[in-house]
């Protein structure tokens, strides 16, 4: 991979200081950028296959790779990854079994659970089910990169609801919440203790504390929630609050909470969990970016809710209307960390994300603040377009 020449202007404050300002409630100028780090913004094995040679996975389900930290910088990222590493799975007849005992089936390049080890389990079976022993390698941060970049610790395992669905089956667990509360409670307790043990192992293994730590837990379908808001508040929020409280006792890092799905009705509940950063699915029903910004406290940092790849694509086409739309949406989402809305599956998506990062870098803080305040300013946008198109982005 050749260097992507990003214009990092002299006098710009460091990413770590900028994050501190955002966490203190200030709306940032040019946003921080995250590309190629965690399972949220990383490269899948299919994106640039030559980078996967002799490499490890950061997420065995999403097939994201542990990109060299210097390559994250070349893509324009202010962030580098730390966290668990997985060997490539041994796949037989299109299936593999994960560390939880869940079997996954490969369908058109994507894995989905095909069997659930606790689907028919009784209460005693759940309480006795063996917890994973965490003995994985951990990606450390290179010392020469740690001072100038934000360190993001990837989620070491799925979240509370994700694990319950994996072990029990989604529909069976939803029935448990409605009719078999003792079973549901036991699964949630098993999952909570397992998750905390994973974070304890990862954070204890890291040579330096991260700036941000990811917590993933999908809470909805594309057009609705898995549970009613009442059931979510009654049965899931207390467990999530306990988990996040214990996680805060392990690290001073800001917590980035990720969820897919149409979860607009419970956004205030998630915000009340006192997470600093939210990564949400803005393609789900009722989850448009401007609506999210209005519903959430102004102090909450949005991560990856604006489509960085779409921004890069319209810049390449010199689609000024599209550029004006996306850059204004990004500016008015502040405080914000710009990132792809999903992991990157192909070279075109990687190139688009890097071009979007280059375009953002070609704004001054004052220019970006002007767009947030006034909307699209033609002279500012055209100057950034011209600078971006003059820079060649190439990958080997």
UniProtKB/TrEMBL annotation:
Q: Where is the Uroporphyrinogen decarboxylase (URO-D) domain?
A: 135-284
Q: Which organism is it from?
A: Desulfosporosinus metallidurans
Q: One biological process GO term for this chain?
A: porphyrin-containing compound biosynthetic process
Q: What InterPro entries is this protein classified in?
A: UROD/MetE-like_sf, Uroporphyrinogen_deCOase
Kindly list the GO molecular function terms attached to this UniProt entry. uroporphyrinogen decarboxylase activity
Name assigned to this protein: Uroporphyrinogen decarboxylase (URO-D) domain-containing protein
């Amino acid at each position: 991979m050749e260097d992507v020449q990003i214009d990092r202007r002299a006098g710009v404050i460091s990413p770590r200081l900028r994050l501190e300002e955002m966490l203190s409630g200030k709306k940032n100028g040019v946003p921080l950028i995250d590309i190629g780090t965690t399972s949220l913004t990383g490269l899948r094995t299919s994106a640039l296959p030559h980078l996967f040679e002799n490499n490890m996975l950061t997420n065995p389900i999403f097939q994201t790779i542990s990109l060299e930290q210097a390559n994250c910088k070349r893509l324009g990222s202010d962030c580098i990854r730390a966290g668990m590493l997985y060997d490539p799975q041994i796949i037989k007849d299109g299936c593999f079994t994960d560390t939880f005992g869940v079997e996954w089936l490969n369908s058109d390049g994507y894995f989905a659970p095909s069997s659930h080890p606790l689907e028919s389990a009784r209460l005693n079976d759940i309480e006795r089910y063996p917890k994973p022993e965490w003995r994985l390698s951990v990606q450390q941060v290179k010392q020469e990169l740690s001072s100038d970049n934000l360190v993001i610790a990837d989620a070491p395992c799925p979240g509370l609801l994700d694990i319950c669905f994996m072990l029990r089956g989604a529909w069976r667990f939803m029935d448990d919440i409605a009719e078999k509360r003792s079973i549901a409670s036991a699964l949630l307790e098993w999952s909570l203790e397992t998750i905390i043990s994973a974070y304890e192992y990862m954070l204890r293994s890291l040579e330096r504390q991260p700036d941000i730590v990811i917590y993933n837990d999908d809470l909805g379908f594309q057009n609705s929630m898995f549970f009613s808001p009442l059931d979510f508040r009654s049965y899931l929020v207390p467990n999530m609050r306990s988990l996040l409280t214990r996680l805060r006792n392990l690290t001073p890092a800001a917590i980035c909470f990720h969820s897919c799905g149409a979860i607009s009705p419970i956004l205030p509940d998630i915000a009340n969990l006192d997470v600093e950063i939210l990564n949400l699915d803005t393609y789900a029903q009722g989850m448009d970016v401007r609506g999210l910004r209005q519903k959430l406290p102004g102090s909450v940092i949005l991560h990856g809710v604006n489509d960085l790849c779409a921004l890069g694509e319209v810049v390449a086409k010199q689609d000024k209307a599209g550029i004006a739309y996306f850059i204004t949406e990004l500016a008015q989402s502040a405080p914000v960390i710009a990132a792809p809305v999903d992991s990157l599956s192909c070279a075109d998506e990687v190139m688009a994300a890097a071009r979007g990062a280059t375009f953002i870098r070609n704004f001054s803080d004052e220019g970006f603040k002007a767009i947030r305040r006034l909307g699209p300013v033609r002279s500012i946008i055209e100057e950034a377009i011209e600078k971006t198109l003059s820079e060649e982005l190439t990958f080997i």
